Amino acid sequence: xxxxxxxxxxxxxxxxxxxxxxxxxxxxxxxxxxxxxxxxxxxxxxxxxxxxxxxxxxxxxxxxxxxxxxxxxxxxxxxxxxxxxxxxxxxxxxxxxxxxxxxxxxxxxxxxxxxxxxxxxxxxxxxxxxxxxxxxxxxxxxxxxxxxxxxxxxxxxxxxxxxxxxxxxxxxxxxxxxxxxxxxxxxxxxxxxxxxxxxxxxxxxxxxxxxxxxxxxxxxxxxxxxxxxxxxxxxxxxxxxxxxxxxxxxxxxxxxxxxxxxxxxxxxxx
Length: 270
Hints:
The chain is of the alpha+beta class.
């Protein structure tokens, strides 16, 4: 008599979606790097204090050095079935004193992916128009010492909306397979910020090229300062050459603000 066949059962590890806020100044960016401090590395180190690792988390987007987040999303797989409220508290405890905070946590299906399940990313950029050095907002805004023509900037921004080859606004080290993307929204408006008048840029798309948003902002600043005409943005776009891009803005005014999924995964998050 033959022995009964062996039954192999696959037990999936519990998966958790994390909504993350961070100040990007102390970090080399999101992505883990050897011997350098990254946001991903610090969160994985905190996870290792809760459960033996190694841990590898995946994020909705890889922000560069100095870029901030209000709504970054990542997922992690753990062995223990954690209560999301307790997992949030434990991670925040072990992340101190790093300027990283887990502001939402929820259990998700094991095929849910922070990057590949996302259908839209929204970035916000803060540009402060003020001569005196920023104090409270230092490191959180791009500061220019003059008022900009916001209406002209919005007129220039209209040329970027839609489905285009964005080679001009793509970093030379961008690893995306294609420079063709669809930009859903680029709103430029002036607001009264806590430190003075700000230009706020809201940019939405399913995905972005490396340095695409910062290239947009820097180019539109050229329009606002009078160095470019609004139609020069269209000329730069149609050139499909990186050297046609205007100034690339510094990173400190950029925030990953929101990541959207087919269903609001954080609707009941703790």
